[in-house]
From TrEMBL:
<dbReference type="InterPro" id="IPR017438">
    <property type="entry name" value="ATP-NAD_kinase_N"/>
</dbReference>
<keyword id="KW-0444">Lipid biosynthesis</keyword>
<feature type="domain" description="DAGKc">
    <location>
        <begin position="1"/>
        <end position="133"/>
    </location>
</feature>
<comment type="similarity">
    <text>Belongs to the diacylglycerol/lipid kinase family.</text>
</comment>
<dbReference type="GO" id="GO:0008654">
    <property type="term" value="P:phospholipid biosynthetic process"/>
</dbReference>
<dbReference type="InterPro" id="IPR001206">
    <property type="entry name" value="Diacylglycerol_kinase_cat_dom"/>
</dbReference>
<dbReference type="Pfam" id="PF00781">
    <property type="entry name" value="DAGK_cat"/>
</dbReference>
<keyword id="KW-0418">Kinase</keyword>
<keyword id="KW-0808">Transferase</keyword>
<protein>
    <submittedName>
        <fullName>Diacylglycerol kinase family lipid kinase</fullName>
    </submittedName>
</protein>
<dbReference type="GO" id="GO:0005524">
    <property type="term" value="F:ATP binding"/>
</dbReference>
<keyword id="KW-0547">Nucleotide-binding</keyword>
<dbReference type="InterPro" id="IPR050187">
    <property type="entry name" value="Lipid_Phosphate_FormReg"/>
</dbReference>
<dbReference type="Pfam" id="PF19279">
    <property type="entry name" value="YegS_C"/>
</dbReference>
<keyword id="KW-0443">Lipid metabolism</keyword>
<keyword id="KW-0594">Phospholipid biosynthesis</keyword>
<keyword id="KW-0067">ATP-binding</keyword>
Amino acid sequence: MTSEIVILCNPHANQSKAAAVASRLQQIAPPSPQVEWVFTSYPRHAVQLARQIAEQGCRKLIAMGGDGTVHEVVNGVMHLPPEQRPIIGIIPVGSGNDLAGSLKIPADPVDALKLALDGSVGNVDIARIEDDRGHGEYWTNTLGIGFDAVVNIRSRSIRWVRGFLIYFLSALQTILFNHTPLGLQAVQDGKRWQAHLLMLVLCNGRREGGAFWVAPQASPQDGKLDYLGIRRISRLQMLYTIPFVMQGTHQRLPYACQGRFQKLELVSDHPLYIHTDGEIYAGLDSTIRQIRVEAIPSAIRMNIPSAG
């Protein structure tokens, strides 16, 4: 029988810095009959572990890692019906921690642990993508199509620099080699539109990449998803646009488009490159041309700061 509270930690998060944080937190919440520590060993391991832990009746499952770890934990527990899903806590020790930021979960691991163990509980929205391959997946923070997905993909092959410089070099490569707009036909909550977009980001949370305020107005508790699209522009304009997205001031740009929805269907004239919560959903070998995305309101109960 699994303990009542399980802390599921990705020790490799944030270039393996999470392992040292876990050692420190184990002094505050040591392994016991009430609290169990479980560690992932490989990518997507948390999906399998979270499902097993939830099926064994765990009351509270605390995801310790970055947005990718939370992504995997949620995909694991969503195999269960709502009444059997454990309360989810987050100890944000990744590089971006964007969903935790949108939910105002403390950045300090000790404070986040205290909130996860004893804090108030609120309902949090998630979303689901399904594609023309018959594949589907849940996501919690952002889903990127086009430019930012390719930047994410390219960043994984850059290992000689760190931090923002990785993103900058990946963005330059993407602007030079993947500057192809997507011809999209969309059905947004029953209304049709079409556009040629270099980038489309669907948002449950407010930011991605730790520094890019893609949807400053978004909320993971309003039952809706927001989106940002960048229409066809020159390479130089795309480079010019990046600081606006970092500051969340891109709404003023004439080639930026925003909106809100609960259901969105897309058909593309080119294969879609996609990331979900920073994880590669469809890489540069993608054949996906059609997707359906839907918000799932109040799907997960989470330990989050009270509204007051």
